[in-house]
Specification:
The chain is mainly α. The protein has helices at about 1-10, 25-40, 50, 60-65, 70-80, 90-105, 130-145, 175-200, 210-225, 230-245, 300-320, 325-335, 340-345, 355-370, 380-390, 405-415, and strands at about 15, 20-25, 150-155, 160-165. It has three domains: about 1-205, no CATH class; about 210-270, no CATH class; about 280-415, no CATH class. The protein is about 50% helix and about 5% strand. The strands form two sheets. The protein has a two-stranded antiparallel ribbon with strand order 1-2. A hairpin with a 6-residue loop joins strand 3 (about 150-155) and strand 4. The longest helix has 24 residues, at about 175-200. Mean pLDDT is about 80; it is low at about 265-270.
Length: about 425
């Protein structure tokens, strides 16, 4: 259903909501283009694959990430920037469309009884939450029913071509939209029936998806050397191995996201990934350029780096394995200020970085952009650590205890480009 909605939205190009405001696919294309030009993602996962999705048209992940709440937040953020504000001034209806479709998908994809998310719609169906979810379903249903498309109508006698507004649920591409409405209402009716007849306490809609079957059968070809046409004997052998020996691990290119539901899981010991600082990695010391760093005047880059800095602050303060000294605690907490992106993305759990943290993250971003063709050479992160530890932004009396913190900055920021 979600893929059908995405496909119809792309092919029509423009939809119209009940108020007559246009919902345009071009805003999503422009968003991806801006991110590509700026070298940063505005806290979403849009790539060229999401725009040119025809080669991966069956991949659900691309559709969910395109029509997502993160895309909505990015469109609203660009609307409030000086450089792109005029270009995205009419993007609010498109952002609303992404949010409504995202909410509908979340209601049908609840995995836990007690949701840890801040959105009120991604919660399990229980007697207490039923009315709340029913209200969300009614809002989404009325929104989808109010969507229209502009259709050409040709008069057979006069040969004149006119345009007529047709509800999308009555158009040739109605399947995805009608299917979403039916699925939402059926989930509520199914819970009522199970609760009344069998006393079901709660319903997790994720358990009703066909992803589990699809992931299971996508793992079958892997057992036969990626044989996509196994005979009965090969299928039986692969099925037995999957059923009694290991967890189901589907291909990374499968259409559905991997399940977290084990089938007779085989326990294993988690590997220790902690590493000591290796001074020999500094052999490429002179290859990197850390003087005359690239100047970054972009408002978008500043806001995204601040968003990343807030995430790093949150991860460090929550990590029990990192013992923060009073000096580190002061650096993480003093003088915090939230950017427009953090304000838009915040559902109640985001942190704003301090000025010191932002300065460190921005300095690392400059290092990465200046050495963009060398960031994967051995020793780059270690050299960044050395530069930051002894740079004027941060002065530590003992640098040994702070390498793990700066390494987190570098590892996360290395994949910005």
């Amino acid at each position: 259903m979600l893929k059908n909605i995405r496909n119809a939205f792309h092919d029509y190009g423009i939809l119209f909501d009940s108020k007559g405001d246009s919902i345009a696919w071009k805003y999503i294309e422009d968003l991806q283009s801006i991110q590509s030009d700026e070298g940063l993602h505005i806290a979403n996962k849009l790539t060229r694959r999401h725009i040119k999705y025809k080669q991966n048209i069956m991949n659900v992940r691309l559709a969910t990430q395109t029509l997502s709440s993160s895309t909505k937040d990015s469109l609203l953020y660009l609307q409030n920037t000086k450089k792109y504000g005029q270009q995205f001034k009419d993007a609010t209806p498109t952002a609303t469309f992404c949010k409504r479709i995202n909410d509908a998908f979340d209601i049908l994809n609840v995995r836990a009884k007690f949701s840890e998310r801040f959105e009120t719609h991604k919660i399990s169906l229980t007697p207490k939450t039923k009315e709340q979810l029913k209200q969300h379903v009614d809002e989404i249903t009325n929104y989808i029913l109010g969507l229209n498309i502009d259709v050409k109508v040709k008069n057979r006698r006069t040969k004149l071509v006119t345009f007529k507004m047709v509800p999308v649920v009555k158009s040739a591409r109605k399947c995805g939209f009608i299917g979403m409405i039916i699925s939402l209402k059926n989930a509520l009716d199914l819970y009522d029936d199970l609760h009344e007849k069998y006393g079901l306490e709660y319903l997790l809609t994720y358990k009703l998806l066909q992803d589990h079957i699809e992931n299971f059968f996508s793992a079958v070809p892997i057992k036969g050397g990626f044989n996509n046409n196994p005979d009965a004997f090969q299928f039986r052998c692969a099925y037995r191995r999957l059923l009694i020996h290991h967890d189901v691990v589907s291909s990374s290119s499968a259409n559905c996201e991997p399940d977290d539901i084990p089938i007779l899981a085989v326990s294993f010991k988690k590997k220790d990934t902690t590493k000591e600082f290796d001074e020999s990695l500094l052999k490429n010391y002179d290859l990197f350029q850390f003087e005359n760093l690239e100047v970054i005047p972009s408002e978008l880059v500043h806001d995204v780096v601040q968003y990343i800095g807030g995430f790093i602050t949150m991860k460090i303060t929550r990590k029990t394995s990192v013992q923060l000294c009073p000096q580190c605690s002061a650096v993480l907490e003093e003088g915090t200020s939230a950017s427009n992106l953090v304000t838009i993305k915040n559902r109640g759990g985001l942190k704003a970085p301090s000025k010191r943290v932002f300065d460190v993250c921005f300095h690392i971003e400059q290092m990465i952009r200046t050495n963009k063709d060398k960031i994967f050479l051995p020793g780059f992160i270690e050299r960044v650590i050395q530069e930051i530890l002894f740079d004027h932004f941060v002065h530590f009396a003992d640098t040994t205890d702070h390498r793990s913190i700066i390494r987190k900055f570098s590892n996360l920021s290395q994949f910005i480009i």
